[in-house]
Write a structure and sequence with these properties.
- With 449 residues, the chain is an alpha+beta fold.
- The chain contains 17 helices and six strands.
- The chain has a four-stranded antiparallel β-sheet with strand order 4-3-5-6.
- Helix 1 runs antiparallel to helix 12, helix 1 packs across helix 13 and helix 7 runs parallel beside helix 14.
- The longest helix is centred in the first third of the chain and has 23 residues.
- The two termini are 31 Å apart.
- The relative contact order is 0.12.
Amino acid sequence: MRGYFRTYTSAAPLAVFRIAFGLMLLASIVRFWSKGWIEELYIRPTFFFPYYGFEAVRPLGNYTYLLFAVCGLSALLLALGWLYRAAAVLLFLSFTYIELMDKSTYLNHYYFVSLVTFLLIFLPADGFFSVDARRNPQRSFREVPRWTVDSLRLLMGIVYVYAGLAKLNTDWLLEGMPLRIWLPARNDMPVIGPLFNYPETALVFSWFGALYDLTIPFLLLNRLTRPFAYAAVVVFHVLTAILFPIGMFPYIMIVAALIFFPPAFHKNLLNRLGHLLRLPSEVFGRAGKRVYTPLVRRLLLSGLAVFFLIQSLIPFRYLLYPNELFWSEEGYRFSWRVMLMEKMGYVQFRVVDDTGRRQTVNNTDHLTVLQEKMMSTQPDMILQFAHYLRDFYARRGFRNPKVYAETYVSLNGRLGRTYLDPAVNLAQETDSFAPKKWILPFEDEIKGL
């Protein structure tokens, strides 16, 4: 291991990753802004669902546009390698702040982007093919420690393998759920569309998806299988982008997977790009290595070890909870469980005070369509909204308001059933990492990881 941590490799893979990832994030920010989603998701709503422990992170009103502008500018500076360290810090902080503003917009790839931008703060992706290398040749270099490149590969491997392990459950492998629900909606596609009506097609897609996630990092690492594996990456993610509206995530994964290619591949890409843009040779950095002092190297490696240990353990925290994971969703987020369930819910709130005064709540008076949809199947969000209703009606004269919820949820095509104990006063319940005892039993079984 000591020998491994002293080996060096070309800085070109980090440079290509920095450029591709930064430009992809910039495109994502521009797309988000152009579609009017900043106004729709972060300015227009009257209530937001913060993450537990991050209640202070709130939308900033019209200043939210400035936050997105900072994020987009940071992504551009990162791609250019201009003021790289500051750009990486700003990108991580601004993007993660956006991610934490409202739980109802949670997506796995937002979490992935936050992790990558955090890693890039500490990786030497700025000394080669960058503005910083051009402006300050003394801080440029052509070789980096091998572990700096492998850390990005390891993160990609964790994402894929954990996504594959999450698919090893009976709903996915034996029932073809939830693809058996989703695919028929795309049966108007040319050529292959009619095949989506058959349950067997959903099973084929499910098994291929699990096999793909579990094997693709290892196939990308192997020189002989890498070209075919990357072709599979492109086909898989393009097909996913066509079939399901999941934004830029497929394209982010396509460019991120380039990190598995050898240095010669990345050097060739950068040489062509430099020739095309007629860039001076100084952007390629001077012929040297990025050498860390023993103390800095030890701190970086120790920090990375802690980082990857945390990433390896977080997806298994669901084992601390007694309920079925897909039913209660306790420990579901931040675990690379991608597109594994179709969950539909209905929630009707009743507010009652000590004088007998009653009010049936119209959720749409307080929530957007997306917020109500996400809230209706997630207990922590239901609890947050119940607390909001408690405070809302207290300000309107209700004395010691109590909030009760009538809830029904359907999971992966099963019949809807009561979700939460309707006799529990949610206004008095507190949120925490402890199991929520007012979630009713699933009364079924999904075997798997």
